[in-house]
Amino acid sequence: MNPVIETLLKHRSIRRYKDKEVEDEKLDLIVKAAQASSNWCNGQHVSIIAIRDKESKEKIAKWSLNQSFINTCPVFLVFCADFYRTSVAFEKNGRDAKDYIEQLDTLFVGAHDVGIAIQSAIIAAESMGLGAVCIGGILIPLIGLCIGYPDDDPGIKPRLDKKAIFFEGKYDTTHIREEIDKYDEVYRNYINNRSSKSRDINWSNKMSEYYLNEIKGGNCVYDQDYELLKQQGFIKIDKK
Q1: With contact defined as beta carbons under 8 Å apart, do 46 and 113 qualify?
Q2: 3-state class of 221 per DSSP?
């Protein structure tokens, strides 16, 4: 049995922790693992905020039904479904993101991406001898998984720099635009290097185009989501 499978099969939720700080090197690898996770259209709609100070952790524990192990863990990671970078991608291309991002589907996309990312973070942490437990969450059947033997090697897509998705203590958009500018160039080079045809496309352009293509003629392709949730029993009232 390979080490990855062994780590997965040995998973358990840890709620008691030693009085020992998590090394920055290990935390950095956890963030990188989360960021490398599968995500919708390479939109990378997940941000992570590291909470280390005692006062902030105590407040979070209180808001989370007084789960005391939040107080005692060395670092508490808050995983956020984050569409701010997508709005910047719209802005860079002279577009307003409001009508495209404020859709029910973004709730699903954000929930999916966060769920996948946090699982990768847990696996990475456990592979380095750390323990973890998730806080909060509602389970509904949303994610499918295709499995088979690969017949192609598309290469590894570059990711946004850590400074664009990871923050200490509080969320900070100060350098987001700068980091997206840099990433747009990296992504353009990646696209052109994997194809024999030169294409003038970057990440922010690609992301804004995805959303534009989903709303055509004033009709959103995800308008049926509301009725689907109502049919499944998640919503009880009619859409107004």
Answers
A1: yes
A2: coil
- 51 forms bridges with which residues in the sheet? 76
Residue owning tokens 């966060």: 114
Q: 125 or 67: whose pLDDT is higher?
A: 125
Residue with tokens 């699982």: 119
For residue 206, give the nearest of 92, 101, 117, 110 by alpha carbon: 92
Q: Are 49 and 77 in contact, with CB atoms under 8 Å apart? A: yes
Mean pLDDT, to the nearest integer, of 173-201? 87
DSSP state of 37: S
Q: Which amino acid is at 82?
A: D
Bigger pLDDT: 34 vs 142: 34
CB under 8 Å to 107, separation ≥6 — which residues? 81
CA distances from 62 to 67, 71, 141, 193, 239 (A): 7, 9, 29, 50, 34
Residue type, 176: I
What is the arithmetic mean of pLDDT over 43-61?
Answer: 88
Residue 221 confidence (pLDDT): 56
Which tokens go with 11? Answer: 């998973």
Tokens at 79, concatenated? 């995983």
Determine how many CB atoms are found less than 10 A away from the CB of residue 48.
23
Q: Which of 159, 167, 163, 195 is nearest to 179 (CA)?
A: 163
What span, in angstroms and rounded, lies between the C-alpha atoms of 157 and 193?
11
Q: Which amino acid is at 165?
A: I
Q: How confident is the model at residue 203 (pLDDT cuts 50, 70, 90)?
A: very high
CA 55 from chain centre, in angstroms, equals 26
Residue position matching structure tokens 């107080």: 71
The reported pTM is 0.76
